[in-house]
Write a structure and sequence with these properties.
About 10% of the residues lie in helices and about 40% in strands. By secondary structure, it is mainly β.
Length: about 150
């Protein structure tokens, strides 16, 4: 996991720490942040895990450079059973994660924004097993709201 200053620097570099930008870095103030890697075919990939006895996703914020397909490997290193309910265009994905198990999911997140995911089993969400995928990029002109530009820094 990145040191506190490294985390703050990365949140700033990605624009996730300021009002009227993508303030997700302030909402999920704890936990790690990571970028997905991109394959030659444009598909992105990342690994997300639940570390033993931490009841937190690692990373808590996964950043995708653009919309599209992403393949996730989800690993449960904990001694307890958890689940993963993931967003995806068309239909959500659900993976049941027995203790010390892993699963894979292919998601399509085609537009910029925040996509939340969690473990809906037991009281996992209440104990902090909630995280976000941030998709960077601009909304296409045809999908923009008819309103004045909002201030940005």
């Amino acid at each position: 996991m990145a040191a506190v200053q490294e985390r703050a620097d990365l949140l700033n570099e990605l624009g996730l720490d300021a009002q009227n930008q993508a303030a997700i870095g302030r909402v999920l103030g704890t936990g790690s942040i990571a970028r997905a890697t991109e394959r030659a075919d444009g598909t992105m990939e990342a690994t997300i895990r639940i570390k033993e006895d931490e009841i937190a996703w690692d990373p808590a914020i996964l950043v995708l450079p653009h919309g599209g397909d992403v393949e996730l490997t989800i690993i449960n290193d904990d001694k307890n059973t958890h689940a993963c309910l993931l967003p995806s265009n068309g239909d959500k994905k659900f993976i049941w994660l027995l203790n010390h198990s892993k699963g894979r999911a292919r998601l399509n997140l085609d537009g910029p924004g925040y996509y939340w995911y969690s473990s809906p089993g037991g009281n996992d969400e209440g104990r902090g097993l909630t995280a976000a995928i941030v998709v960077l990029g601009e909304v296409p002109p045809e999908a923009r709201l008819d309103r004045p530009d909002q201030p940005r820094r």
